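yo, Alpha/beta hydrolase fold-3 domain-containing protein is done. seq:
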Amino acid sequence: MCSQNDLEGQAPNPLNPEFFDLLDQDFIDYYNKHLAWMPKTHLLSIEEMRKNGHKYASPWCRDFSNEEFVKDIKLAADDGYLFTARCYYPDDKKSTFGIGPYPVYINFHGGGWTFGGLTGDAEICMAIRDRLGILVMDIDYRLSPENAFGTGADDALAAVKWVHQNGSEINAQGDCISIGGISAGGHICATIQQLARDADLPLRLAILSVPAVIYEGDFRKPSDAPFESWVENQNAPCLNWERSKFFQQHYNPKNSAERAEFDSRPICYKSPLYGELRGLCDTFICTAERDPLRDEGELYGLKLAQLGVRVSIRRYTNVPHPFMHMAPIKKAQMYLEDICSELGRVISPRAAS
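structure:
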């Protein structure tokens, strides 16, 4: 195994030395084995990433589309665009809910509104399905820069509406919907919390994992952010200031028309933290100590609590932004236990006879 000094000299993406003593050893071991040797994707063009996405995919990306109990369906956004929703069905011989209908958890993947798809969260989706015996639906929402910022949230809302109104078509309980997402997916989840409340679409639970809850597209340096965690973790592994700038370049409005359209949207599309938070569904918020997004996620949770929303906030120490994807590390295992416990609390006990 290479030493840390060897990695610094050979690997294209070694850990920053200032974080050696700030991270769990099992994360460092995972990073050095799987991530240090990957290129810094924020130094690549978006065209290269789109053309050769499999080449740069994170080690946890998996395609389970050909597995038993996995089915892709097409849903329509309000503008007519068709997007894919991947449904992970439980084994009815093992599920508490038997042959259904099943409670449903709708997932919105991360990737800075620019990367990602139906492989990034697949292992987590499968794990939730297997532990709880519920239907998990993963949404392949539209990305930037090909689409204006906010379009992905439109797709996400369309998915929630469709399941609420047509759940029986996929053997789901349309009145037992929970949602969740990681990173940019957490931002979308927070947006949908507010839009669903306004549209009288009841949700059981929202799981916001390492979420962005303010619009960072106007920041020019870490200290522009109103949170110390952006300065403290500006050189952190996996998500840092350089990578954030890359995403900004691609999701920021590209012309005056896009800017005008974006500014006309409700504030929750841009910065859920500054939206109307009263009356939101139960919420679980996961933050990571070595993540630039840590403080804003925790503040979102505190504001919910102040307004009477049932919320749990957990900070996972000594790990960075996407730790929950790294199944061998202890904090990732704790995270999976935590979110399944929260979901288990709210899902309907109703099962088919």
